[in-house]
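Standup notes, structure subgroup. Blocker cleared on the iron/sulfur cluster input:
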Amino acid sequence: MLERRKTRQISIGNERTGIVRVGGDAPVSVQTMTAGYTYDVDACVAEINRLAEGGADVVRVAVPQRKDTEALKDILDQTSVPIVADVHFHYKRALEAIEAGVHKIRLNPGNISDREQVNSVIDACRERGLPIRVGVNEGSIIERKDKALRLEELGKFFADRRQGHLIALMIAKLEEYMEIFEAQDFHDVCISAKSMDPRLVLDVYTEISKRFDYPLHLGVTHAGPKETGTIRSVVALGTLLASGIGDTIRISYANDPIYEVEDGLEMLYCLGLRERKGVELIACPTCGRIQVDLFELVQAVRKKLSDEIELPLKVAVMGCIVNGPGEAEGADVAVFAGDRRGIIYVQGERVANVPEDEILDSLLDECRRFEARVKAGEAHLGEKAVEILPPDPIGELGSGVDKIAAGQVEQLTIDES
Ligand code: SF4
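Run returned:
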């Protein structure tokens, strides 16, 4: 991992919501956006609180109509996470949202470009100490009137790059827009430049990071359904973050936004950019050695543990005990399944051997007990690696050395010395 790019820092929120810092030495934050209508106050509050509980650091809401900004005050009174008003087309929605007490404004240079209008939003934000995200989107920047000419002119920049004209156009739009902010000496700004194409996102953010020292909000927009959208987002955002670029992220796709938060956090945990909250689960992939319904078990374990366990326990759900111990090394709690049974270990010590239908409950009990001991200071996370040595683990599960002798277990090695 490269050192993170140095950027200015902005702050979002207030004493009540807590302040989320973006840029500088702040941890990379996770954002998402509500799916419901903002004017539906109760539903919007419930959705924001659910997303905040799921780990969202900042939540954005759409305010396309006056009734949305009118609802904001009530919403802000009932939520405890910084809220961003997403403004398109009507700069007055930004002014109304600021008046209602919102914590940050997002402006789209593609549809609010009048200098006086932008200046009035800048003035209102400055008065209240609010930051603005300048969010360029590939889809909204191509001017309808002189599109062909612009693309031709800009095509000569980045000519060696795939979609070089779009990179140039997004950067040109951003530079024009940022000139308004510079002229007003307003620097409480964060920048994004999203596209639905992950390769374009990679190129554009890389170029922007060379031109501006404002914090960058990373995202792939219109990324499609969750199944492919996650991959598109993680490829682009993960690559940028691994090169030190990016200060806040939104993974986005067509699904419940709670998954965007979960996936965003997991990506940051994997990159070592955030300290893990909750369980880290290790589990087998498909494998012909698994002798229980492991996939169903893993999903059930995942759900239960995320609901019940707060500490970052490392939990392993392994399909066999032949290779499982090596794969689960370092797990605090581990189950090794085989022959329709499961053997459970807590920090290397065998604590249970149960039939398949009792594995879930037993494993959860052990996780709860272990977490309680950690909280009481009687045990420590990651203190002991799982050390379970064959030679005859199969026998312990009831399948016996006869299987080894019959060549049905290929990978078991026995130290004869
Ligand atoms: S631990 Fe066993 S069941 Fe799991 S992937 Fe490895 S060999 Fe297969």
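Discussed briefly. The longest strand covers residues 349-355.
Next: hand off to the docking folks.
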